[in-house]
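Write out a record, fold above all:
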Amino acid sequence: MLQIDKIRAFVELGKFLSQFSENANHKNEHVLRNDLFFDAFVNLIQLSQSHNGWYTESQVYFAIRSWAEALTEENLTKWLSSYEFSEHSTPNKSKTVGLILAGNIPLVGFHDFLSVLISGHKALVKTSSNDQHLLPFLANYLIAVAPELQTRIKFVDGKLENFDAVIATGSNNTARYFEYYFKHKPSIIRKSRNSVAVLDGKETKYLLIALGDDIFRYFGLGCRNVSKIFVPQEYDFTAFFEAMFSYQDVIHYEKYANNYDYNKAVFLMSNFKLLDNGFLTIKEDTSYASPISSVFYEYYNHLEEVENRLIADQDRIQCIVSNNLLRNSIPFGSTQKPKLWDYADGVDTIKFLLEL
């Protein structure tokens, strides 16, 4: 299968996904295979929360829209332009890559799936029990528009077998298991990471509202969600909380509300000092990983000390958000909008796959 054909298949998938949004689903007669897939996908979106209570229609639509925006010919060409794919133009160069996917947010494993196929390999996929429906559906759409992919995609329920390399995502505990189990295979093993924001107190309300999306998108379940903020000494949290009120409807989701009530009770019983606005607690803590419905904060005296701290802990950090306060930080509101070339954990997945 030629590289141009693989790109074309994913561009068609992007066009298919572009029909769906939270406001309305608009069927485009020019999109391939709509007769088979459009209504079925609408139905799957509506059923997603019954499959996983965290997968509300709003969150699923956001994930779909993000991938629709990413899967354009322009983006795919830009992403792949710096790689050489000619080595994988013959069948004997193709490897079977096992994918063990997470399920914390909708389609979280799609980038690995895309990378394996676009690099000319076969994908042997084990989905998370929390996300068993969306990716197989999109895989079926790809096969419908590019039947050559039929032999390159396989989903498995049990143990992964007969593979040449693996990309596995899990917690720190499961990562230790993965590292032992796959020690004789080329691998990318992803562990738990968190994202942080660095404030200086000069942020506008607009920027702080954008930060709220980094905190609340997907209910804070993603590694790209901000779970910790660094603030200067004597920081006034009033503006921060005022901006967060834009997201107060999150408390109406039962699973989030249950976590809020539980975690707040645990903190209070432990006599921790909390700031609370009725749907979010913030607590002074040196840790990076805060529980759902809570954000940790830490004071700093100089930005240099924060930067040095984050460099030292870079294997625990996914994203750093700021208003150009630190090198390599990204803008507020962008954590859940990564580009195709924004690799998880900073590991170049395509480079890894091309070197197999």
Observations:
- The longest helix spans residues 34-51.
- The two ends are 18 Å apart (CA to CA).
